[in-house]
Request: fold
Amino acid sequence: MLWISGILYLYSMNDLQPISTHSEIITISRLEYDELINKNLNQSFEIERLKLELDKLRRMIFGAKSERFVGATPGQLSLFDIPQEAKVEKDEETITYTRKKPEQEKAIGHGRMALPSHLPRIEHIIEPTDKIEGAKKIGEEITEVLEYKPGKLYVNRYIRPKYIMPENKGIIIGELPSMPIPKGNAGPGLLAHITVSKFVDHLPFYRQVQQFKREDVHISESTLNGWFSAGCNLIEPLFEKYKKIVQGVSYLMADETPIPVLTKDKPGATHKGYLWAYYAPVERLVLFDYRKSRSREGPVDFLKNFQGILQTDGYEVYKIFDHKPGINLLACMAHSRRKFDESIKNDKARAEFMLKLIQKLYVVERKAKEQGLSYHERKALRQIESIPVLNEMEEWMKEEIIKVLPQSAIGKAIAYTLSLWPRLQRYIDDGRSEIDNNLIENSIRPTVIGRKNFLFAGSHEGAERAALMYSFLGTCKQHNVNPFNWLRDVFTNLPECKTSLLETYLPQNWEKLPDE
Reply:
């Protein structure tokens, strides 16, 4: 049996003398004592978890979205910190690199940037109101003002005269050019405009309807939806060709993002579908594959024949690819870094120590980029400069994980990183590999902005059509292709295009037409 003695002293506010005392002996069993200790420990874990969630919530609502980390400047004094104890001096390392400044366009007159030379010029000659007869022109002042006219709708009217052949041998008439929508009255330019407006400029169809009304053109939202669906049906064979090309590359990044979908089986609510994103960093290809769930069936089906490097975050679904022959599975250092960034308030010293090491890894990547190193040269640079940092990180985490609470923010950050460590350091083995999969997260951003504007997809078929368009228009962005010009050309020529020539209309292969 155990006993606990507790003595309570109450003091007077003036003379601090004890005014009463109380002593009590409490007898408990060893089992009850152990239960109290475990309960206290569990409550400590729960408090740490709730503090972490509260900190995340505050960051989401009030905090800066940037995860940029700047370590303390050596030798800089704090305005409020009072020195507590002498700190142990550590070896310091100075990292320098050379960076080329981007060339800036020269300003013309009063610091203004020159207006684009490819824009048409409309000249307005303004003569002096007090012009004197016999005056001789000695020069001119030119002022350019950028102006805008709203896009205008117009009607293409095809007139085809009919002719009767001599001796009643029949009637002949000119052949109507192929239309993107058979028997439809929407031209390629209009289809391209409403599609780009929705998936690049994030304007839902109901807002486009309001724009058309301002031009005194009344088109219903259902009509726009019908035109868009017909356009997607036209380029679906091109998308199937594109999908096979993406599945055949040797390096892919993968991620997923939710998309709400209206379905008949959930009246008054939305189904949570997912757009699985795939990005080929070398070829700069973006592809979205819609699936009804976040289960492993989606990536397993899409990547069933894939061979090469696959880079993902720490989502459990991707673990299956770590044991698939022919696939080299990589993780994302940015996701690991985010865990330590979120744990600064929990354990500032440990979190900042790890963030500084990760920062050194990114300095190496920046150096390779700014020096324009080839894949082979980037691998060699990593072998020299990144491996020592990675070794230090691994050794430190293995020592520190037993010193922190498992449910604390820093404990979770270390455990998360160690669980993915083999995948996190594999990027150094191939110069093509990136240190993180931020490139694919950048490709996903348009879908997030669109989701805030559209709110949901009207059906599973609508979500599939959105995936198709986000894929093509995302690839247009990667290759600096004007999405409107590309899409108008595709809608114009695809109805008569031979299957063997489909690849020429893919965004990465497409060339701007001479008359555009």
About this structure: DSSP finds 13 helices and nine strands in the chain.
